[in-house]
Amino acid sequence: MSLVSVITVNLNNVDGLAKTIKSLLDQTFVDYEFIIIDGGSTDGSVELVKSHVDKLAYWVSEPDKGIYHAMNKGIQASTGEYCLFLNSGDWLVESTTLATVFAKKPKADIVAGDIYFYDTQTSAVKWFVPSPDKLTAKTLFLGTLPHQATFIRRSLFDAVGLYNEQLKITSDWLFFLEALLIHGCSYQHYPVTVANFNMDGISCNPNTALLPRREQLNVLQQRYPLFMADYEELSALESQSQLWLQSREYQVYHFLKRTGVIRVGVFGHRLKRFLQRTFFNQRTS
Predict the structure, then answer these.
(1) 95: which DSSP letter?
(2) Which of 112-116, 134-138, 236-240 tops mean pLDDT?
(3) What is the Cα 131 distance to its own chain's centre?
């Protein structure tokens, strides 16, 4: 048994796959197995995989029913203690990344690191996104853990179940929700940047921007209707928060704080509250 099974799914993304493969083969850590699930690519991906077949524990190229079906095939082929889903186009940040993570001998069922959102249009990191130190229901209502940087104990898929193949974009969110809130699995944030997340995928596509919320709502309505009131309230508060951060009033407060005109303290707090009330009163009047 390897310590970690790295599972990569790919469909007609030979350049992205090459980057992912290189980041794995460059690792100084050796206690891992590498699994590639290809969906029947015709762009040279299969030939690329075959050129590295001696480094793979398992690979297959055949039509599948979508990304979660492919990920499930990878899980079923895996034998590692943990699984890491590093999909085609994503890559580990350093050649020492896996060695750094497992040097601390993590024990939690779910060990989440941090990620960079990488914009291929500008060839630069657009956002740094840390995983939370402590997970709450609020965390999972407003977002999810980055699967590119999250190590999941393989046995959880036997206890919780495989990914829901009926969902297009939120099955990993549902898995984390049920593993952590229903099954009470243990969680640990490991504060190291694990992976670069390629923003070319479906989760960053403007055409599918509303799909995650829609799928989450459908899941909660069907499976966990008692969560709906809290979910809707948190969504409303999050929307208000985003509007506040974009408001003229916030820009005034931020400018005064940044230039030192006001400092964090009673006056600064009162001014912020006053500007917030002014902003939200304008919106409701």
Answers:
(1) T
(2) 112-116
(3) 9
